[in-house]
Request: fold
Amino acid sequence: MFEVGLNPGSGGRRLAWMRALTGRDELELGELAPGAITDLLGRMLVAVPGAALGLPDLARATIADRDRLVAGLYAQAFGDRIESRIECGGCRQSFEVAFSLSALISDLDERAQDAARRYAPAGSGPGDDGFYELGEGVRFRLPTVADERALAALPRADAADDRVFSGALLERCVRMDAGEARAIPIAAVEAAMEAVAPVLSLELPVRCALCDAAQGVDFDLIHFLLAALARERPLLVREIHALASAYRWSFAEIVGLPRELRRAQVEIIAFAREGAELAP
Reply:
């Protein structure tokens, strides 16, 4: 079991706890579309007294908190460092981009705390109903997993249209004082939501290591996690085979092992075989 820091809001640390990733989880994640990862995260949450997020709360969890669970899962499986190669928009050569996931989240959290206090009705957090004050009679709450699931039911053409999708989301998350009808200030609300609860799908500023050209690179942690697991799938299959061959364990027993324990057992098998081959 390991702890995960959630979006802090205007207060101190908010934590959730998750169990270790297993081979069964890895296989299932390899078959999932990015939007379906939430269900698996829900099954990995552990009920701990004092946790800010548990399984019954998952549908009400903000998208920002869901992304922090993904970050915790990625760090537990692959470590803190994010590495990728991109093509420079200037010289058209590929170069490596690398950064610390925890440092990125720490920077986002610090700014989120300031924003949460700025939009909080009493200066300390959202109101009892979960709404923040934008001003001029406009209030908003943060998008949740339940909102994401509801919008997934939109017709394909509407879901692909950013304006329609944003409009449908804001209708669920924004309240305006009664009076003269006026349009929702979409840009202002979206900026406030992103400031209070930044998600881990964003554009990061980078400079080309070859020509020093400044540019932005799109980073989506969910896609990055799924791609990392997809690359490791052949290794997972070999690990399952090694354990089955050495110990005669069943498939269900092997894929039920925590990832770290499975890998440690495979290393023991490899060392034992290497020792046997070297013995006179």
Summary: The radius of gyration is 22 Å. The beta strands are 2-5, 15-18, 45-46, 81-87, 94-100, 132-135, 138-140, 174-176, 201-207, 214-220.
